[in-house]
Design a protein that fits this description.
With 169 residues, the chain is α+β, with helices and mostly antiparallel strands. Helix content is 33%, strand content 27%. The mean pLDDT is 88.
Length: 169
C-alpha cells in the first residue's frame, strides 16, 4: 500500500512540475511570435502570462491576460484550486471558472511528443458562453494552434461569429 501512495505522490509531483514547465514552454512559444511576453510573478493572479501587443495605431498597447492549462483529452477552465503535489493545500481562494473578468484567453497545452506541443486558444468569451468547467479537445479542434482566436480573444463580436461559423457554440 505504501508503494501506491508513493506512486500517487510521484504523479502529483510530476503534474506540478509539468504545470510549471508548460507555463514556460507557452511563454517561449508566444514570445517567438509576439516578442513582448512575460510570465506573471503574482502568486494569487488568475492568469499566468501577459502579452503586450502594439495596437494598429502603433501608439498604444493592448494587454492580453493568458491562463495556461495542461491539456490531455480535455481542458479545464477552473481556477483557484491546487493541483499536483500540493493538492491538499487549503486557502481563502475560492474555486472559479475562467471568464473575461479573470483572464482573456485560456491556453491549453497538449504534448504531442517530447519536442512538440499543440496550443488550444480558448477565449474566455466562449467559456462564459459555454457555462462549463471543461471542454473535450475533440470538440474544440478548430481552436488548436489557431492564433486568430488568441489575437482576437477580446473581440466579442468576432469570437462569437467565428464560433458559430465553426459550430462550437
Amino acid at each position: 500500500m505504501a508503494k501506491e501512495k508513493n506512486s500517487k505522490a510521484d504523479r502529483g509531483k510530476q503534474a506540478s512540475i509539468d504545470g510549471f514547465a508548460h507555463e514556460h514552454i507557452v511563454v517561449g512559444i508566444l514570445m517567438k511570435k509576439f516578442q513582448n511576453v512575460s510570465l506573471v510573478d503574482l502568486p494569487l493572479s488568475s492568469y499566468d502570462i501577459i502579452i503586450a501587443r502594439e495596437v494598429e495605431d502603433n501608439e498604444t498597447e493592448d494587454i492580453i491576460r493568458v491562463q495556461v492549462k495542461t491539456a490531455r483529452k480535455s481542458i479545464s477552465f477552473a481556477g483557484g484550486t491546487r493541483g499536483g503535489v500540493d493538492r491538499e493545500y487549503k486557502s481563502d481562494v475560492k474555486t472559479y471558472i475562467q471568464s473575461p473578468k479573470t483572464s482573456d484567453v485560456v491556453v491549453g497545452i497538449q504534448s504531442i511528443d517530447d519536442d512538440g506541443y499543440n496550443l488550444y486558444f480558448v477565449p474566455t468569451i466562449l467559456i462564459e458562453k459555454w457555462k462549463t468547467k471543461s471542454k473535450s479537445l475533440n470538440k474544440i479542434e478548430i481552436l488548436k494552434n489557431n492564433y486568430d482566436f488568441l489575437i482576437n480573444c477580446k473581440n466579442h463580436e468576432y469570437i462569437i461569429e467565428k464560433a458559430k461559423e465553426y459550430g462550437i457554440i
